[in-house]
Design goal:
Blueprint: E1 5-11, E2 16-22, E3 27-33, E4 38-40, E5 43-45, H1 48-63, E6 68-75, E7 80-83, H2 102-112, H3 115-122, H4 133-143, H5 145-148, E8 153-156, H6 157-166, H7 173-176, E9 183-184, E10 189-190, H8 192-197, E11 213-216, H9 219-225, E12 232-234, E13 237-238, H10 239-249, E14 257-259, E15 264-269, H11 277-280, E16 284-288, E17 294-300, H12 302-317, H13 327-336
């Protein structure tokens, strides 16, 4: 019997990867590449066109070597795309790093509710820039009112790629519930922000499990990649939640997982979405895991800070190699508690 393989499209903010696993989830092969954002007239954009072309090419290359029967997509958070009825982008692919300005920020909370009100309802904290998808959508409406009239559906990033692969529309809880302002976890329904933005008909009606099948690949995508015609595509998942999944499956109890990357994300599964008064003022919020259960979360840009310090050290050290990891030194520094380690 021919062995089947799984292709995982892993779109981090820094690294984009296509990885191959066998039926026993053993890692087999991979390819990765970076795609820089670009700026036009003060707006930062994702290089979505080149990223998509590269992903399709890598899948085609791997399809020549492996019998790929399933595709799974995991992506960084805070990114959504608006498509028209033909499936093309109705709005340019704005990156969440775009700074819309203080006036925009103040207007958003005046129109849609105060930070504290929205945090209590949605479990979402303001993270800055357009990291909250609710703010991204409001930005679209304000900046491109004519383009906005052509929007047919708004898809979160994992499901946007799922749509490119299958032509099917979907949503999963890990992304809808990822500091978007768009979901009320207590009521388990779309939030007041969705109603005020008047976008309920633009969002996927059903929120499906992350592991459910979104659909079979479309004939067009099959022709581009030469995948088997019966290759399935799963619903997709937010990347930090994907790293949390093994510990949930193994039924770990009362733990904190720190997922590192561009953002360092500390996650604590819990059974409430309530905040203390102090937490209402802090960068603490609730995401949803694959079971639609709350995950208390805090974040900071550890990966970006690491890159900044690495550039400084490179300027000091030139081409000299950095010292190898020294576990004894690391342990001593942690024990002494006199220095901060990034």
């Amino acid at each position: 019997m021919t062995e089947s393989y799984i292709a995982v499209i892993d779109i981090g903010k820094t690294n984009k990867k296509v990885l191959i696993f066998d039926q026993d989830l053993n890692f087999i092969d991979s390819s990765f590449k970076n795609f820089d954002e670009f700026t036009e007239e003060g707006v930062i954009y994702e290089d979505l066109k080149n990223m998509t072309s590269w992903i399709k090419l890598q899948i085609k290359i791997f399809a020549e070597k492996y019998q790929i029967k399933a595709l799974s997509v995991t992506t960084h958070g805070a990114t959504a795309f608006a498509i028209d009825k033909t499936g093309q982008l109705a709005i340019p692919p704005v990156a969440y790093t775009t700074d819309a300005g203080d006036d925009f920020r103040e207007e958003f909370y005046q129109v849609l509710g105060s930070q504290k009100e929205l945090k209590k309802e949605s479990g979402t904290a303001e993270i800055g820039s357009l990291v909250n998808i609710g703010k991204l959508i409001y930005f679209w409406q304000k900046k491109w009112p004519e383009k906005w009239k052509n929007v047919w559906k708004i898809l979160n990033m994992p499901q946007y790629f799922g749509y490119l692969f299958t032509g099917k529309i979907g949503a999963d809880p890990t992304y809808v519930g990822c500091h978007t302002y768009l979901y009320n976890p207590k009521k388990q329904e779309y939030s007041s922000v969705v109603k005020k933005l008047d976008i309920l008909n633009l969002l996927p009606e059903k929120i499906s499990k992350s592991w459910e099948v979104l659909g079979i690949i479309s004939p067009e995508f099959q022709n581009e990649t030469m995948l088997p015609e019966d290759c399935i595509v799963t619903m997709g998942i937010h990347d930090s939640n994907a790293s949390l999944l093994p510990y949930l499956v193994k039924e770990f109890d009362n733990f904190v997982l720190n997922s590192t990357g561009t953002w360092c994300v500390a996650m604590h599964p819990t059974n409430t979405t309530d905040f203390s008064e102090e937490e209402l003022e802090a960068l603490v919020f609730y995401n949803l895991n694959i079971y639609q259960e709350p995950v208390k979360t805090s974040i900071f840009k550890g990966g970006l800070e690491f890159d900044t310090y690495m550039e400084i050290l490179k300027r000091i050290n030139g081409d000299r190699e950095f010292p190898a990891f020294n576990e004894e030194l690391y342990t001593r520094i942690i024990r002494d508690k006199n220095l901060f380690i990034l």
